[in-house]
Amino acid sequence: MRIIEKKQDLKSLIEKEKYNDKTIGFVPTMGALHLGHLSLVKTSCEKNDITVVSIFINPVQFNRKEDLRKYPRDIPEDLKKLENYKVDYVFIPSETEMYPQPDTTKYDFGKLDKVMEGKYREGHFNGVAIVVRKLFDIVQPDIAYFGQKDFQQVVIIKDLIRQLQLKVEIVTCPIIREEDGLALSSRNLLLTPEERENASLISKTLFEAQSKCKQMQLEELRNWVINTINGNPFLLTEYFEIVDEDSLQPVHDWTTDKQLYGCVAVNVGNVRLIDNVKFNL
Ligand code: AMP
After folding, report:
1. Is the CB of 185 under 6 A from ligand 1?
2. Which atom of ligand 1 is nearest to 149's Cα?
């Protein structure tokens, strides 16, 4: 496992690998790695000759300075965890390496980024698109791995690839959860023990909603989810939307042939967590 800090070094190494017909799998992360990230790494190692993992906290995707400042960082521990897999290159660039000058590109994702995360975190997906494009340009992956936990992000990245006509396959990996159901997230580290315990109500409510969807009208279920989560004094729902998986637009009744997902963002104290479930109608 080689640690690379300079994009030109990684580019040259990748060029050599490609010359030798190696397939490149890529897992972009912001570090503070947990088993969710590592499930992506494991899949990439199984499916590709070469696996590249990047660790870069991308400042331009944070809409709140405080969130960026508090974001957990532990590179030595991350590297120890990655040693357990057949990772070839870990790319850990500095901010100036990624942004020698500000990148002011503006992407147009139509309606896709006007809802949910895009609506509540202004500029977030533009920042994600900027860094993903830069990273893809350096790593030139055949396959890139993303987590279903960031459901809207996957749809937006697929749209980015379509817009830029890149030849990258996107593979979405399932959400890895704690034993009590809480979706793994680097931000879970920021929860107090009390907040952590109460945060499990988020996924519990989503799972219960999955089983209730045949008995309740959609809007009734939507309100039930919001009220149940907000009934806990540690939790405050920012949004809960039931959306169609392609357009990401909220739907208002169950009569659709589209696959529907329930997506939630909840503030647990000062920590903002997201999660989602699929509705099998
Ligand atoms: P992040 O470091 O938060 O930017 O996440 C890097 C990648 O790991 C993204 O594609 C996330 O969707 C994915 N990821 C984060 N948490 C989980 C999880 N609990 N299960 C599966 N994938 C995850």
Report:
1. yes
2. 12
Q: CB-based contacts of 110: which residues, under 8 Å, 6+ apart?
A: none
pLDDT digits (tens, 9 = 90+) for 237-263: 999 999 999 999 999 999 988 999 999
Residues contacting residue 256 through CB under 8 Å, at least 6 positions apart: 244
DSSP letter, residue 166? -
Q: How confident is the model at residue 106 (pLDDT cuts 50, 70, 90)?
A: very high
How many CB atoms sit inside 10 A of residue 167's CB?
9
Provide the 8-state DSSP code for 176: P
Q: CB neighbours (10 Å) of residue 52?
A: 28
Q: Is 34 an annotated catalytic residue?
A: no
* pTM flag (> 0.90): yes
Tally of residues, the chain: 281
Q: 133 CB less than 6 Å from ligand 1? A: no
Check if 198 has its Cβ closer than 6 Å to any atom of ligand 1: no
3-class DSSP assignment, residue 197: helix
Pocket test for ligand 1, best of 41, 91, 150, 188 (most atoms within 8 A of CB): 150
Q: Is the CB of 127 under 6 A from ligand 1?
A: no
Residue 112's SS3 state is helix
User: Would you tell me how many other CB atoms lie within 10 Å of the CB of residue 151?
Assistant: 25
What atom in ligand 1 is closest to the CA of residue 146? 10
Residue written as tokens 């004094």?
Answer: 233
* Residue among 37, 135, 146 to mutate when testing ligand 1 (max atoms within 8 A of CB): 37
Neighbours of 179 (CB within 10 A): 6
Other beta carbons less than 10 A from residue 170's beta carbon: 16
183 CB under 6 A from ligand 1? yes
Q: What is the pLDDT of residues 137-172, one digit of tens each?
A: 999 999 999 999 999 999 999 999 999 999 999 999
